[in-house]
């Protein structure tokens, strides 16, 4: 299957006014930006933290993280996922427990603080996102896929 590359965000929908409302104002355009994703895959490495670096377009809006444990981590006491601009950084996400049963790991308010949520609104000029899983204790199994969902900015230069 072929891949199509774009230099900027992809807008979908009509780009002209579609209708006139009861006040006589034109309504539209009816456009939205395509949701993009990048995936990082992690496999346990005994007691060593594992990091994967993704590059998200500058000014993008983070829309969410999907954390899917393919194989539950069997670390001695914990295995936590963080996302930031450096390894083990927490600018985007903190303390997501991947030492759980296999399957989708739900995110809660404890994983995303108000400051982190503000960082989701726009990645600013930073394009580097480092996802890290840090085990505590001996680990012999664990495999996790993390999908970062984002919408590229229409105003940032590529």
The helix fraction, in percent, is: under 10%
CATH architecture: Sandwich
The largest beta-sheet arranges its strands as: 5-12-7-10
Q: Which class in CATH terms?
A: Mainly Beta
Question: DSSP helix count?
Answer: 1
Task: Report the average pLDDT across residues.
Answer: 83
Give the radius of gyration: 19 Å
Furnish the topology, listing elements before pairings:
Elements: E1 11-14, E2 19-20, E3 26-27, E4 30-33, E5 36-43, E6 50-55, E7 61-71, E8 78-84, E9 93-97, E10 103-105, H1 114-121, E11 128-136, E12 143-151
Antiparallel strand pairs: 1-4, 2-3, 5-12, 6-11, 7-10, 7-12, 8-9, 8-11
Which structural traits does this protein have?
4-stranded antiparallel sheet; 158 residues; elongated; single chain
Description:
The strands form four sheets. The protein has a four-stranded antiparallel β-sheet with strand order 5-12-7-10, covered by helices on one side. Strands 6-11-8-9 form a four-stranded antiparallel β-sheet, with no helix packed on it. Strands 1-4 form a two-stranded antiparallel ribbon. It is elongated, with a radius of gyration of 19 Å. Helix content is 5%, strand content 44%. It has one helix and twelve strands, in the order E-E-E-E-E-E-E-E-E-E-H-E-E. The chain has one domain: Jelly Rolls (Sandwich). The chain is mainly beta and 158 residues long.
